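Colleagues,

Please find the record for the two-part complex below.
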Amino acid sequence: QSVLTQPPSASGTPGQRVAISCSGSSSNIGSNAVNWYQHLPGTAPKLLIYGNNQRPSGVPDRFSGSKSGTSASLAISGLQSEDEADYYCAAWDDSLNGYVFGTGTKVTVL
Amino acid sequence: QVQLQESGPGLVKPSETLSLTCTVSGDSITSYYWNWIRQPPGKGLEWIGYIYYTGSTNCNPSLKSRVTISVDTSKNQFSLKLSSVTAADTAVYYCARGVADSFGSWFDPWGQGTLVAVSS
């Protein structure tokens, strides 16, 4: 029942740049800030980006976020093997009066 | 350093009530808001709801009729009850601290998660 749409997969070789899109609507991304989470199976999800493009302390500057209209994007530059994980976008939805996640994107480092 | 730890039964029978507790250490539960999120096997993340230390709650409309979230400030814990469970409620359940400011709202940190299976 995710209302934010992401591509199911993305891949790249070490050192490459990978971008993940997140498509929403006027009630979520269009009205509220977007956050991104990194999730390695069996571990706690980790906040990667908040407020569309803010990096928490400790997150490498290889990760960057952007938003335009009802879409957002996460870019990973200088891809590393440890970046292989699932990535989720998320935002508050004013119509649902709740928090919504994206469908998730699995990043593979070739 | 803030840490969250989920606890509760790993197996619940269909039609019964799932009960989980999240213990917060390194921070007072009287700050921020506190969330439950789940991930069914092979699927994505789903927000369940949150509670403030005052007891004020907000839940996912799709689960609202079955969800109860409560807080115990004396123990620095908050809890989730999900009634009338079915196999579709089988998931890893996470608790997470919710932060809100001028940049919006987000979850950080998260607990490690606990797998709850619904089966007879």
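DSSP finds no helices and nine strands in chain A.

Comments are welcome before we finalize the supplementary table.
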